[in-house]
Amino acid sequence: MRVRLDDLCAAVHAEASGQSPSPQRAERIGEQLVSLGYLTEDGLRVTLDVLGKGLLGLAEFQPVERHAQPIVAVLGALSTGFLAASRRAVFEQQESMQLSLLKAVRDAQWHLKESEARFEEVVTSSSSGILVVDPAGQIVRANAAIGDILGYTTEELAGFALLELVHPASVRVLGEAMLALLENRQERVRQPQRLLRKDGDVARISMTVSLLRGADDQPVHFVAVVEDGTELMLLQSELHRQALHDVSTGLPNRQYFTTHLESALRRADPVRGISVFHLDVDAFGVVCNSLGRPTGERLLVHVSRRLKAVLAREKAMIARFDGDQFAVLVENTATTPDVASTVAELNRELAEPVYFDDRGLAVSVSVGVVRRPPPDWEPEDVMRAAEQALRRAKAGGRGQWALFDEGQDAAERRADALAVAMPGAWEHGEIDVRYRPVVGLADRALVGVAASLHWDRGDDSLDHAGCAEPAERTGLILPLGEWQLATACGQVRWWGQSAGFTASLHVDLTRNQSRDGDLVRRVRRVLDDTGLPASRLVVGMPVAALAESEAVDNLTVLAELGVGTSLVDFGLGPDDLAVAAELPIGSVRVARRLVERQSRGDADYLAELVRLARQAAGEVLVDGLETRAQADWWRAAGVAAGLGSFFGDPLPAGAFPDPIEWYD
After folding, report:
1. Nearest C-alpha neighbor of 143 from the set 518, 506, 420, 153
2. Is the dihedral of CA 163, 168, 172, 177 positive or negative?
3. The model scores a pTM over 0.85
4. Tens of pLDDT, residues 103-147
5. What tens digit of pLDDT does each residue of 105-115 get?
6. Helices marked H in 318-368 — which ranges?
7. Mean pLDDT of 201-210
8. 179, 150 in Cβ contact below 8 A?
9. Is pLDDT above 80 for 87?
10. Staple partner for 244: which of 47, 137, 256, 285, CB 3.0–4.6 Å?
């Protein structure tokens, strides 16, 4: 250490005599201090305090007035060397973290090469500066680094008072801190600051100020170490922006949109309110599957631009949610178009093809709309309502829109509650299988039983349709339907053993059951477990389900296994007749709505269509018979058997009449 002190003294003498390169010698000493382990700011502060006081007290540096300036310059150079070496050591420790951060930024901005280069420069570059200020606040000396930060030359900076470079809003805070140093109430001050650049901009920096005192303990100079925080602020700002915006389109994301929606609800016009649109790009999956995900992303960018163009005159926020979904918040005014006009204009814009790699793409959007939501709603309520409206719009086909209806929403929420509660109800035995007779219309003989689900909810019991709908929505219909089939097959098998019952069992499937990839395996397993012959089982599929190849395959294989097959909800139209003629169908069951139409006298053509259905499928059944007159009319039309309240409502197995003694 004595050798380094001698070198430092020599540097002071060299500085006093104007020799060169005394700063480099002092900088090397600062670097050597770091290599000895003095890495912290406290190490630098203590070193400057000791050297500043000690050097000024040495006999060889008397008078002080002559050597104060060289000592301060040498200490500044020592500080520069110390800070440079210290920063290098810290940067080496943070290198892996910086590289990871750079990679994350590059990954997020892969499509913006210019932004990548800018962030590379922001993150990897850094600088610091030293200012020597006299007790009156006048800058005495400045290094090149602080000049680069502020855009001044070192000579220009020497003509300023320090507080002249500070933003007016921060002058008082820094002035009080420097006064505290002068009054010995603080040894060092570190605070974020805003300095005024030469070009008028503001540099955000971190400033550490210490006070050098002479041998008589009187203030000699302030030493301000400045670290430029502009790059860090820019990086933090960009990362914050990325956290609230979609990378591909640059639009606000769901989080930002929800926050904005909350404030918009509070300030909404009490009469006109706001409108929220939830949009889904139709057939987006088709584009991605055929042309690739990058093309799909380019299409979404196009959609975002079209949205901006359509809503350019409105006070609106457009956001991209996950996947192919967008949201729009419009603060309504007297000139805001109605919803139908806005959606129509948007679909007209999107119908104009846009070309990617010589391929012209045109799309449409389905839209759910919440117009003028109540002011006491939370953003989550508005978004849920918009999603509900979007689901209804998509159910109506592509390019459609639906307005949120509170009454309809309440019904849907009740249906959702049923669907959620259904698994527990099944487990607790609230759901059972009930049976109703299938009766020959000619002789009133029992030709079969139809098994259906029943949910006993006290005063609000649900029939088969009421059970199947919520189970279909949640996927519970597959295990529940297999249980229904197994229960009914076991019951009919037991009736056959105890009473000699030989009629068929009719079990209807839903659309999802009809196209279930495991349907055949389920049926075979139930028949094997219960011992019921395949010829005793008649499986009914909705006509609409046979538009899908999976359902057609299932029906064909079941027919090959000897299971009876039937088309239910048969409409007697040309398409239904074509399906019955082309597939291995054993029977068809006329839809309930046609029975109602016949009762109103609005079905002169039905008798002829029954004849055509018999030619296509062989046997025709009818569901929903409520009166003898209905049964007689359909019998005269050629229908073989029927079901309905006229023959009896669905009953538990224990309450069902003895099948062998059935009578009308």
Report:
1. 153
2. negative
3. no
4. 655 665 554 455 444 433 432 343 578 889 998 899 988 888 888
5. 566 555 445 54
6. 339-351
7. 86
8. no
9. no
10. 256
